[in-house]
Specification:
The chain crosses the membrane at residues 22-51. Keywords: Membrane, Transmembrane, Transmembrane helix. The protein has 61 residues and is of the alpha+beta class. It has a domain at 22-51. Helix content is 31%, strand content 13%. It is built from one helix and two strands. A two-stranded antiparallel sheet has the order 1-2. Strand 1 and strand 2 form a beta hairpin. It is flat. The relative contact order is 0.08. The mean pLDDT is 82.
């Protein structure tokens, strides 16, 4: 029995029926998907450090 192709809201944005793409730097090998996730996490961390912390209103007037 084969599964019907998924359409609509549950369809993957990319075709997942093939091997992933990998990058090689000497002994280091990483998938492109993992590299993208790591870059997003580092970007979010740096943004959290650099963006000002929201301050509440003060009623010291």
């Amino acid at each position: 029995m084969t599964a019907a192709p998924t359409t609509g809201a549950f369809a993957a944005p990319v075709d997942l029926n093939h091997p992933g793409h990998y990058l090689h730097w000497g002994v280091v090998q990483i998938s492109v998907a993992n590299l993208v996730v790591m870059c997003l996490m580092v970007t979010l961390f740096v943004a959290a450090l650099l963006l000002p912390f929201p301050r509440g209103r003060r009623d010291d007037e």
